[in-house]
């Protein structure tokens, strides 16, 4: 129960810290240039976290599973039984069983006790023979330098098995990354193909002599309703799809981090959970900050972005507690299943790395395409002069530096905190 209490404490701290880090862009009253600057940093943090933290974390966890299996095989090799050639001393006179008499205490000598000895004519270079069964047998390793043929065969089998595991790890790394990337691509694109083809918005032809009457007799309420209906039918649905894909990718990654924390809590070393906890928090807080800044940049309201943040903050604790319960129900804390647990943990982390790569790529596209979206201010065939002005200024060197700073920020945070 001590492990469960420690895990619950870490999960509570993780959820609260993630929420506080992500609420900063929502609570601060930021102007449009400042919001764009912060969202650019958040986009860079997403890219840097996916390349610097998540992919190395998954690869290291996957290969650590083979190290656990190799250590277990080495232990079995040291405990491997070896044959020895046993000869009895000739100083003992063979007597029939019925003629054996009890010796006097004075006749007993510590040097006259029969025991296993090596024959004087034994050649350590040549294979020995036993008096019962001739043939090649193993010889006892006396000086620690010799190695029997059985040990050579055993070690060669281990090397072949280790090579097979390494090759399979290389293959599974690509499969997990591709599966995560394809999942997020389908989550982003399938809703667009599943909905019916939207009708092209009708163009209103207005004569020049009626242009003044158009704006004089049309109330502001009618224009607002027309504009709102147009936005709701086109941009609103697209914004929800983009924000949903971004949040799903981060939630999957956070759940995989929670699985890693829950799996480490089942180990015998209690300090491993704290190491993984601090390693997760290093990139979880910037990821929460980047999530909310990107969601606000995509056009979501603060209330909706706060709901996405709560979902992201609870994903890792839920994954950790679920993994701990599943491991204890199935007996996963034992040493025989430690290799399997680490392998699946590494696969889930690499899967989340693929999803995170798609989210980072999508955030970069959103950042580069925001200028073109801001300059398209026309609606229904006529252009209002007030709407033709770009809503955002031209990207500057400051934005480029902010993006690069966000990309290298996870690299500085990783120094001294290896997973």
Bin the helical content. Answer: 55-70%
Q: What is the overall shape?
A: globular
Number of helices: 10
Let me know the largest β-sheet. Answer: 2 strands, antiparallel
Q: Would you give an account of this structure?
A:
The protein is mainly alpha-helical. The chain has a domain at about 1-80 and about 170-195 and about 225-415. Helix content is about 65%, strand content about 0%. The chain has helices spanning about 1-25, 30-80, 150-195, 210-215, 220-235, 235-265, 270-300, 300-330, 340-375, 395-415, and strands at about 85-90, 115. It has a two-stranded antiparallel ribbon. Helix 1 (about 1-25) packs parallel to helix 7 (about 270-300), helix 2 (about 30-80) packs antiparallel against helix 9 and helix 6 (about 235-265) packs antiparallel against helix 7 (about 270-300).
Briefly summarize what is shown.
This protein has helices at residues 2-27, 32-78, 149-194, 211-217, 220-233, 235-264, 271-298, 302-329, 338-375, 397-414, and strands at 87-88, 116-117. By secondary structure, the chain is mainly α. A two-stranded antiparallel sheet has the order 1-2.
Essential attributes:
single chain, 419 residues, two-stranded antiparallel ribbon, 10 helices, 2 strands, 67% helix, globular, Unplaced genomic scaffold supercont1.5, whole genome shotgun sequence, metal ion transmembrane transporter activity
């Amino acid at each position: 129960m001590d492990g469960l209490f420690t895990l619950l404490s870490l999960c509570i701290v993780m959820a609260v810290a993630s929420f506080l880090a992500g609420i900063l862009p929502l609570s601060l009253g930021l102007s449009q240039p400042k919001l764009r600057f912060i969202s650019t940093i958040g986009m860079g943090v997403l890219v840097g976290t996916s390349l610097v933290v998540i992919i190395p974390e998954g690869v290291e966890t996957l290969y650590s599973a083979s190290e656990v299996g190799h250590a277990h095989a080495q232990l079995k090799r040291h405990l491997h039984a070896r044959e020895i050639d046993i000869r009895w001393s000739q100083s003992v006179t063979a007597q029939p069983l019925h003629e054996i008499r009890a010796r006097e205490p004075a006749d007993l000598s510590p040097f006259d006790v029969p025991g296993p000895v090596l024959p004087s004519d034994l050649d350590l270079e040549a294979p020995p023979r036993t008096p019962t069964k001739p043939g090649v047998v193993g010889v006892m390793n006396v000086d620690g330098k010799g190695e029997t043929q059985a040990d050579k065969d055993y070690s060669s089998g281990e090397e072949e098995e280790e090579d097979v595991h390494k090759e399979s790890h290389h293959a599974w790394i690509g499969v997990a990354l591709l599966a995560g990337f394809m999942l997020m691509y389908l989550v982003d694109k399938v809703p667009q193909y599943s909905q019916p083809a939207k009708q092209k918005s009708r163009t209103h032809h207005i004569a020049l002599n009626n242009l003044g009457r158009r704006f004089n007799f049309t109330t502001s309420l009618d224009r607002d309703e027309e504009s709102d209906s147009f936005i709701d039918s086109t941009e609103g649905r697209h914004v929800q799809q983009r924000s949903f894909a971004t949040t799903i990718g981060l939630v999957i990654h956070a759940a995989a981090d929670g699985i890693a924390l829950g799996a480490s809590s089942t180990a015998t070393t209690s300090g491993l959970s704290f190491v993984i906890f601090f390693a997760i928090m290093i990139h979880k807080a910037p990821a929460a900050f980047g999530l909310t800044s990107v969601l606000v940049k995509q056009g979501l309201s603060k209330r909706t972005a706060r709901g996405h943040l709560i979902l992201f903050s609870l994903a890792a604790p839920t994954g950790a507690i679920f993994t701990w319960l599943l491991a204890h129900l199935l007996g996963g804390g034992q040493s025989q299943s430690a290799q399997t647990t680490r392998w699946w943990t590494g696969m889930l982390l690499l899967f989340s790395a693929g999803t995170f790569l798609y989210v980072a790529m999508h955030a970069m596209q959103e950042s580069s395409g925001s200028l073109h979206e801001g300059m398209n201010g026309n609606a229904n065939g006529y252009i209002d002069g007030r709407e033709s002005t770009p809503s955002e200024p031209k990207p500057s060197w400051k934005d480029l530096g902010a993006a690069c700073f966000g990309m290298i920020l996870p690299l500085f945070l990783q120094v001294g905190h290896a997973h």
